[in-house]
Amino acid sequence: MELSRDSAPLFDRLAEVASRKPASFHVPGHKAGAGIGGAQAEIFARIMSIDYTEATGLDDLHHPEGVIADAQALAADCFGAEETCFLVGGSTVGNLAMILAVCEPSDLILVQRNVHKSVIHGLMLAGAKAVFVPPAIDEASGIAAGVQERDVREALERHPEAKALLVSNPNYYGMGIDLAPLAELLHDTGKPLLVDEAHGAHFGFHPGLPRSALAGGADCVVQSTHKMLTAMTMAAMLHIQGGRIDRPLIRQRLAMLQSSSPSYPLMASLDVCRRHLHVQGADAFTRGLDAVQYFCRQLSTLDRFELIEPSPQTTAYTTKDPFKVVVRDRVGGLTGYELQEALEREGGCLIEMADPRHVLLVFSLASTRDDSDRLLDAFRRILRHSDGKKQELRPSAANMIKVPPIGRLSHPIPFSNRFPGLDGLTGLAQGDAPPSTRLVPLAESVGQVAAEMVIPYPPGIPLLFPGEAITADTAHSLTELAQAGARFQGTRDIGAERTIRIYTTPSTDREDS
Predict the structure, then answer these.
(1) Which residue of 38, 43, 63, 494 has the smallest Cβ count within 10 Å?
(2) Are residues 362 and 448 in the same domain?
């Protein structure tokens, strides 16, 4: 039977079961919301009414043959894939599965350096080795963007044994590159291109948006359908095309990594999101694009605030997501963190992210001009409350997504699933106990080896991972971030105490990566 694009087979089946109000002798224990009491019941009741599990007729994510299989097939058709898998653990679980499906222990993979922490975790789980490819830095903003074709070519020439290339495109700020040259380069050597497209699930659906990674020739693509589209938080998709990916293996890896009791409301939200795109097409984005364009026009009339827009001279990125708006205080009177706090205080606006210089504003297909006006009013109130005196521009601070300058490819870096980052340390043999660690002030950490992952969050891009040498640039960047008020994951000490945990066993032959 041919599937209809305007159907949502999984959601429709859940709604039909809920309408029958069956007597439940099945998990979950809340029994379609009946067990939720108190004031919470009204909020949860509707979503709980479709919170079923693998009951008769509702299919099984880990062996889909019915409505889940149909929903995934429709998603593949909508997003331009040959096969699509629903994810209930966000893009994180998709990134882990991609790596574990491509890399055996000690296999080498080429990886863009400014990737999400989940990629580093995937390398650790796989016990793989990584050669990090440096990102290009946008000079106007100081933000790390995508990799350059010449660097990937050099990496392939140096390391023909590499199993694949994994890149993140676009970055958190919406900056992206044309992936077609990279796909062609990889495919000429029989290797797959893996793409963390967490922030680009909407790409390719409107002429005003960049084309998708699949359209650029990527073999396996992970998308956070909840970030820039309309699925629920944690709902994501993994797309595959071509014959370079072992599909049974990646499905097996997903079965290992994802819950054996996946959330049906999350999966249903993927189904409904896909139906909206299939039915509306480019029209789904008309209102949101109008809202963001209106906001940018109006903000440009406020002299104090500056939009970060692509310059004709930049080579760091070639595409820009119009829904991602980066703003900074032109005179440097407010850091990004202070501007975020002011916008939330003055306008009740929840801001996606701040770094030492910028705030990142995320619009979507659901945004309206009313939303834009509320945000603009907050900017105007900030202007009215300022003293009106022009201030000297503050020195440019390190950017949260910017890694310390990397002018070359890294050497192969082993990632251990025994104890992370230690395989490359001098004198460490298989079976040895890990060396001890200690806390040192950031100012004294240069030349030492990090014993923890240091992740400014958001956006979740590690500045350091365990086993990586700490350079002067890295220590300086971390100090500036801590002073500016950045939040960190992976470490308890940097923000409050300006200390970092290091291994006491130094590496004598490690290059900076």
Answers:
(1) 38
(2) no
Is 298's pLDDT higher than 90? yes
**Secondary structure (H, E, C), 5-57:** CCCCHHHHHHHHHHHHCCCCCCCCCCCCCCCCCCCHHHHHHHHHCCCCCCCCC
| Statement: residue 311 has pLDDT above 90 | no
Going by C-alpha positions, the residue among 430, 421, 408 that lies closest to residue 490 is: 421
Boundary residue ending a domain (335, 354, 385): 385
Mean pLDDT on 11-40: 90
Structural domain includes residue 20: no
Sign of CA dihedral 256, 257, 261, 266: negative
Residue 179 in any domain: the answer is no
Q: Considering its fold, how many domains does the chain have in total?
A: 2
Q: Share the mean pLDDT of the chain.
A: 88
CA distance 513 to 117: 16
Helix or strand run (H / E) with residue 494: helix 494-497
Q: Please indicate whether residue 390 or residue 350 has the higher confidence score (pLDDT).
A: 350
Could you tell me if residue 254 is inside a domain? no
Whether 24 contacts 31, CB under 8 Å: yes
pLDDT at 481 over 60: yes
Non-local CB neighbours of 477 within 8 Å, separated by 6+ positions? 398, 402, 404, 463
- Please report the pLDDT score of residue 116 as a whole number: 93
Task: Supply the CATH number for residue 344's domain.
Answer: 3.90.1150.10
| Residue position matching structure tokens 């706090």 | 341
What are residue 130's DSSP bridge partners? 109, 413
431, 486: one domain: yes
User: What average pLDDT score do residues 460-472 get?
Assistant: 80
3-state secondary structure of 255: helix
